[in-house]
Design a protein that fits this description.
single chain; 471 residues; alpha/beta; Aspartate Aminotransferase, domain 1; 2 domains; 7-stranded mixed beta sheet; 4-stranded antiparallel beta sheet; 38% helix; 4-aminobutyrate aminotransferase; pyridoxal phosphate
């Protein structure tokens, strides 16, 4: 029995669209009501989550879509997954929700076992975790950890803060508030808060009108595809970008304390970093004493065929911090060096110190992925889907530019010739019963759940073929 059949015996056999436009009239009516108390303008449609099941999402009009977007890549196992429902009904979940503990001051006696369930699926080389509330929060917390670590190395880990540091920090002045930078990459997306906004460089709308730190953005490699036919050119591109990284580290007006990178830039257009590039960044960060942070918020938890995308690169020694959220339904960062634990309490702290209810779900998700061999399934289905897309690329080469994601599970994307054509394709796909997302200006990105199977790929490719032929 397939995983989808096991989980979802009542999953629809195919999409069904009953309205002539999306959002349909009922969705429009409900969104108008919602819009009086909440900003509903970005909404695709009003969703009926009670009726959504498995790989299918249902809207208020009764349209049933095959979902290849999965809540912006954040649903790991499909809708109304029975294993997660069981975890949600557990006594530990009731305690976490009803008596939500302030974990830093009043940790629950079941916190250690809950964290052990998360650490069971930590990236190779990482054995500690600090929990947060969202992907952006995870990155902000990682920056705090990196700055504290960086300054502790300079000061001495057990050295007391000076009177000058204690006094100046209350005025937001040096040396208590040091001028330090985090290096990120052009087209990166790391969140929409203040520090995370400063390292985000994907679209203006993500960060307009709020103050930003003056931090450097390096060039992220832009490869030619297919990769196997462009190895020499792509290696030259890696070396070009690595030189820019090192030049920025050594010449920036303030010290670069940390570097953050997505192994595949998602919002920025599904740009891939090679094993060579990611390892070379490790070499540079060690050479210059820079903390190396990998942002696995969107790439993590199985979608590329490994639990964590950067594990494809086998970076040695392991990176310093790995941030996570989305498909794990929890958030935070993994690390391995105990010196990333601040030398005094209350430095990395807030009321909640994460969300135990979400941690319980994260542990259940990880266990289901392992027990049902969903990493292997994702790799198998991704290869199958990619071959189908290559066939369509041969037929419509202009509509499938830079097809990428081969051997990376279902983490697949391609470009259209123009933003208008890309947007038209996404709209047409919905009318053909497939909910698909875009990224950057030209790209279509596929982000199905890990329960997506060959039968779902066939349905999608059939709808895609029709939609492309109508452009």
């Amino acid at each position: 029995m397939s995983v989808a059949a096991k989980y979802y015996p009542s999953e629809p056999a195919s999409p069904s669209v009953v309205t002539t436009s999306i959002p349909g009239p009922k969705s429009q009516e409900e969104l108008a009501k919602l819009g009086k108390v909440f900003d509903a303008r970005p909404a695709y449609f009003m969703t009926d989550y009670e009726k959504s099941v498995g790989n299918y999402i249902v809207d208020a009009d009764g349209n049933t879509y095959l979902d290849l977007y999965a809540q912006i890549a954040s649903i790991a196992l499909g809708y109304n997954n029975p294993a997660l429902i069981k975890a949600a009904q557990s006594p530990e979940m009731v305690r976490a929700l009803v008596d939500r503990p302030a974990l830093g001051n009043f940790p629950s006696k079941d916190l250690a076992p809950i964290l052990e369930k998360i650490l069971k699926f930590a990236p190779k080389g990482q054995d500690h975790v600090w929990s947060g509330l969202s992907g952006a929060d995870a990155n902000e917390l990682a920056f705090k950890a990196a700055f504290i670590y960086y300054r502790s190395k300079q000061r001495g880990y057990d050295t007391e803060f000076s009177t000058e540091e204690n006094q100046s920090v209350m005025k937001n002045a040096e040396p208590g508030s040091p001028h330090l930078a985090v290096l990120s990459f052009k087209k990166a997306f790391h969140g929409r808060l203040f520090a995370s906004g400063s390292v985000t460089c994907s679209k203006p709308i993500h960060k307009l009108d709020f103050p930003a730190f003056q931090w450097p953005h390096a060039e992220y490699p832009s490869y030619k595809f297919p990769l196997t036919e462009n190895e020499e050119a792509n290696r030259a591109e890696d070396d070009r970008c690595l030189k820019i990284v090192e030049d920025l580290i050594t010449s920036w007006s303030i010290p670069v304390a940390a570097l953050i990178i997505e192994p595949i830039q998602s919002e920025g257009g599904d740009n891939h970093a090679s094993k060579y590039f990611l390892q070379s960044l490790r070499d540079l960060t060690l050479k210059h004493g820079v903390v190396y942070i990998v942002d696995e918020v969107q790439t993590g938890v199985g979608a590329t065929g490994k639990f964590w995308c950067h594990e494809w690169a086998d970076i040695q020694p392991p990176v310093d911090l790995v941030t996570f959220s989305k498909k794990f339904q929890s958030a935070g960062y993994f690390f391995h060096d105990p010196k990333f634990i601040p030398n005094k309490p209350y430095r990395q702290f807030n009321t909640w110190c994460g969300e135990p209810a979400r941690m319980i779900i994260a542990g259940a998700i990880g266990q289901e992925i392992v027990d049902n061999k969903l990493l292997e399934q994702c790799s198998r289905v991704g290869d199958y889907l990619f071959s189908k897309l290559e066939a369509l690329q041969s037929k419509y080469p202009e509509k499938f530019q830079r097809l990428r994601g081969q051997n990376r599970g279902t983490f697949i994307a391609w470009d259209l010739p123009s933003a208008a054509e890309r947007d038209a394709l996404l709209k047409s796909l919905k009318l053909h019963g497939c909910n698909v997302g875009g990224c950057a200006e030209l790209s279509v990105r596929l982000r199905p759940s890990l329960t997506f199977e060959e039968k779902h790929a066939d349905i999608f490719v059939d709808a895609l073929s029709k939609a492309v032929s109508e452009l």
